[in-house]
Structures are given as C-alpha cells and as structure tokens.
C-alpha cells in the first residue's frame, strides 16, 4: 500500500503558498420562513445580499455585482 495524500485545490494552494485565504459568509433569510441560507465568497460584498442574490449565486457560483448593474442602468 502506498501512503498518499489527496489535497483539494484550496488545500494545495495553502500548502504551496503558506497562508489561508479569507472567506466571507453572508447569512440570507429565506422569505416566508425562519430559515436562513448562506452565501460564501472569497471577496467582500459592498451590500447586504438578499434571497434573489442567493438564488443567482447558487445557480451560477457567482454573486451578482449590484454596483455594475446600477452603473449600466444609468
């Protein structure tokens, strides 16, 4: 048997670079219930996300950039 270590992408990056990356967790309340869900991202958001943002993040893996959306609508 061989001794091998399987590392995920983040663990490999930590091992090679030598530091942990910061993650930002945003709790979001589900409308009509007392349940909350979480958005986890590697960049801080400049706004408080809502459930619509969670649905977009869950479907695409990316948090919508409201600042860019507001600028393009002007």
UniProtKB/TrEMBL annotation:
**Which domain of life, per UniProt?**
Bacteria
What is the official name of this protein in its record? Answer: Uncharacterized protein
Organism per entry: Rubellicoccus peritrichatus
